[in-house]
Structure formats: structure tokens, C-alpha cells
Amino acid sequence: MNFFFRQFSYVLFSILAFGFAWLIYHPGLSQSEYLKIRKETPPLIISSIGKDRNQGNLLGIQAYIQAVDYSNAERFYQFIESYLESAKEKGLLKTGTLVMFPEHIGTPLFLLDERKEVILSDRFDVVIKRMMISNLHLFIPSYFQFSTDVYKSLMSIKQRKMKKVYRDTFRSLSKYYDVPIVAGSILEMEKGKLVKDSYSFYNKSYAFFPDGKIIILSKKMNLDKLESQLMIRGDKKEQSFFTISGKRYQVLLSLDSLVAANYMETASDKTDVFLSPSALLSFSVIPEESFTVNEESQNLEKVKLPEILGKSDQDRKWLYKSLFSNLNNRKNSIGMQVFLKGKFLNTELQGIGNIITERGKIDVLLSDNQPGLLNVWF
What we know:
Radius of gyration: 22 Å
Shape: globular
Number of helices: 8
């Protein structure tokens, strides 16, 4: 008994000592290292439809993410603001502008204030192991609280900081640039209502307004295979609408846009604009039932697509199944979908940014893996 106790004590001491040494001797990413990596960001694409008639516009931000942009709060703020600055310079931020960022724009904030070795790693398993060590004093109690679920344990100890930086950033920028912002989404933990001391994770979308108002727009209802390992589905009853300058908006996060039943409107309450902030790590993570196209209606060759040379059948299938097929019978409704871009943890993010402006027509404007601004004038 004493032998095993001594062995356990030795192992525990070694882990704690290693963790302490990690905290002391492994600094964060330096400013020079950060700037060097940021220079590798591809040039910005700008695509616009229509003419400015002083009736407002919808501006989608195709953000190109790198882990370094999430290494601390200041860098995240600068990263988000860089797109708004570019839009302002191009005359795309005006009275009546609504800005939309892509899904999961806030989720990588779990990297906040992590060590350089975490930020620069391109392997998810290595990131998780190193985060466990660098947050050991918080990870151990959380690990047992979440029934030894490593991912939930790590996300839970990062939640307070993630939520604060996400909200502070978008609240401040909405006020400074005087535009409402649909701030994509963020992984967020909520306390359970039925079971004491229980917690659940959701993919939640928020809107921020210049007067400081914040509203929850959506909890994602249709999760991909990776999200399902960590999150639970939102309830359709919790989905919200908002109105700006007489136009009624609804937000549908990526996979939610593939399901016809999620498009909520009645004869008396028509939705004018459908927004789809999206992120797609890989087509392989999409549940098969969410990506099935009825054989009778599947006539992809007749879908009016601009040239997207080299794009796969999966890209074409997504375009057909998402906003296009669901807005095809809605007169005078428009839709916009923007995707998160970049190379995150050695994975190149997928998806083609698009606008639905007329029934039977898709304007595909942002198909490359680079940052972009997608604009439509009302």
C-alpha cells in the first residue's frame, strides 16, 4: 500500500513540476513572430452586387483565420477590425449596413493566452495535450466534473475568457463603426436547467448593435459529426428574428440552412433576408441525412452557377441544397452565406460564399481559400 502511494505521489509530483516548468519556461508568441505569420495572409477579395441607392447593404465577411489571431485578446480585436477597416475604406460601411461574420469565428478563442508551442502546433492531439499541461491546476477538477471528458473539460475552463473577449470585441467594434454585426458564432457553455450542476455546450450566434444591445439569434440545431461530440442541438423554439430598417432577418448556421423546416415564416410574417454564417471543416463531417438531395428534384446541371472551375460535386450539391432550393419559391427574399476560411490545425476550410438575389439564380462570388468581402446593395 505504501509502495503504491509513494509511486502515485511521485507521478503526481512529476506532473505538477512539469506543468509548473512549462508555465515558466515556455513563453507566449512574440510580437515579431506574430507579425511574420500574419504577413502570410492571402490578399483580400472584394465582390459586390448592385448599386448604392442609399437603401443600405448587406456585407458578408469571409474571414481567413490563423491560430495566431487568437493568441491574445488584442490580436483578436485587431484581426476582426482589419476587415471592418477595409470595408470602410472601400465605402461599404454606411448608414443601413449590416455586417455578418462566419460561423465559429469565436470558437478558436480557446487558444487565448496559450504558450507558443500550442499556438504554432498544427496537430489537434498535440494542442490538447499541451493545453492540459499548461492549464493543469484548472483542468484536473474540471476533468472529474465532466466525467473525464477531456474536450469538455478544457473548453469549460476557457469559457469565461472566451465569452468576455468575444463579446467585448464585437460590442466595441459595432459601436465604433456604428453598424450592427451578426458575429458568426461561438462555442458556449450553459448551465443545465433540469439537473443540478450540469452544463451543456451549444454553437450560439449573436448580434451586436451600436447602442450596446446584444441578442442571441440562434443555437445551432443541426450539428456536424465533430460538433456532436461536444455540443447539443438547439431548439427551434429558441431561434430569433430581428428587424433593421423594416427588413426582417433570420440566421441559419451552416447545416441549419440545409433543412427546409428551419426556414421560419408565415404569410403574415415574411422573412426578407436569410443569413447563413457558415464553417465547414470537411464535407466528410456532414451527416448523410442532412446532405441528401431528393432524386426527383436533383438536377444539378440546371442550377444556374457562375463558373467555379475545379469545384467538386460536393460544392455544387451544397449550393443546391442550402439557400438556393429553400429560397427558390420565396418571392423577393434574398440570402447570403459566408464561410470561415483559412488553414486551421493543418486543415484547409471548405465552402463557397454565395448570394441568392433572384429565384433560380446563385451568385457565387467567394470560392477561393482567401479572405474576402461579399456585398449586396439593397
